[in-house]
Fold:
Amino acid sequence: MGPHPARRERGVALTPKHGEMIHMKKRTNVNRQPFLVGAFAAVSALTVAAVPALAFTGQQYEAQAKVSLPQAEAAVAKAVPGGRITDRELEKEKGGSGLRYSFDVKVHGKTREIGVDAKTGKVLENSVEGANAD
Structure:
């Protein structure tokens, strides 16, 4: 015996037999897939354009540094727990090896300047930033 005469080919029962439950198939719209892929690509492109890849002043000296920016940031986190880095730069400055990462760190409502030697990773400066900030 074939399918019930009141059923459609898509598997949706229009009138169930006695004691039978109605089962409906979820319709999927495969035409939305290209739209979703395009939307994801557009959002990704905007995100990359809006956020520069760890841009900081002094990147031209990066090849001379033996300590990476993330390593220097870790040293800052140890020196100023709970602080938030608001500015970073790599600069040639007296003291240590002559090449240092300088960070402005906001903590407890004050800005501190933290200097990390770019060749050794040693914290060279940890002071409250004065009125004449660089």
Notes: Helices lie at 32-50, 69-79. The longest helix spans residues 32-50. Confidence is low (pLDDT under 50) at residues 41-53.
